[in-house]
Amino acid sequence: MPHLTLRCNVRITARTIRGKPAFIRALMDDAFARCPEREAIVYEDWRLTYGDLERYIHQTAHYLRHLGVRKGSRVAILSRNCPEWIIAEFALYQLGAIVVKINWRLTPPEQARMLARNQVSVAFLKAEKPEWGAELERLCADSVRLIRLELAFLLVV
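Predicted structure:
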């Protein structure tokens, strides 16, 4: 399995973070301002600087806002760990949306039930098998806007 690294030179303790997205956003904003040229993400042969990461996060947040995602909106991510996951999650934090993480190993009918149960309106998807993505799109066609979570999605957003 490919290794994914998010580089950050700040000491984080359980006491300082307490699961607060606002703290994570402040931490990232500080990294964006202090060292935009430094590598933030290393994944296989793909490398992103903090400046690139910030740009992709803002573009993704803008796209999500265009889709109607606002503070309190429930947005799911169904994927293995990947750079796009990080970008999507930080964009959602920026908007104040609720991130709903759904196990990518579940079958499409199980994923569709989880999306419905959590009242998700938008979901990022990186299907394990192409036919699973198509099946989930069919199952959720009327209720959830699915966004394919691929490296190419960064070019579209």
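Summary: The beta strands are 4-6, 39-43, 46-49, 74-78, 98-101, 122-125, 145-148.
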